[in-house]
Amino acid sequence: LFGERDSAARVYSLFPVAVRAKKVPPDGLRFVLRTFRLVSKILLITRYFVDMAIAAGD
């Protein structure tokens, strides 16, 4: 879990750099941010269900 969080933090820290390097227009940036947020939300939900399954297994 900690490794996952570290990689997520690394992605978040690299994200602005990538955006700045590519000079994304505001609309594109908004779309990318929305997608990024959605993906992280899906990952959180997935991890929640995995934790529930593990807890049920115990």
The low-confidence runs, each spanning 5 or more residues with pLDDT under 50, are: none
Percent of residues in helical segments? over 70%
End-to-end CA span: 18 Å
Instruction: Give the SSE order as H and E letters.
Output: HH
The count of DSSP E runs of length 2 or more, i.e. the number of strands, is 0
Overall spatial form: elongated
Radius of gyration: 15 Å
Give a short account of the largest sheet. none
Rounded mean pLDDT is 77
Per DSSP, what share of the residues sits in E-state strands of 2 or more residues? under 5%
Describe the 3D structure.
The chain has one domain. It is elongated and about 50 Å long. The protein has 58 residues and is mainly α. It has helices spanning 2-22, 26-57. The longest helix is centred in the C-terminal third of the chain and has 32 residues, at 26-57. It is built from two helices and no strands.
List the defining traits of the structure above.
about 60 residues, mainly alpha, 2 helices, about 0% strand
How would you briefly describe this protein structure?
The chain has two helices and no strands. The chain has 58 residues and is an all-alpha fold.
Please write out the topology.
Layout: H1 2-22, H2 26-57
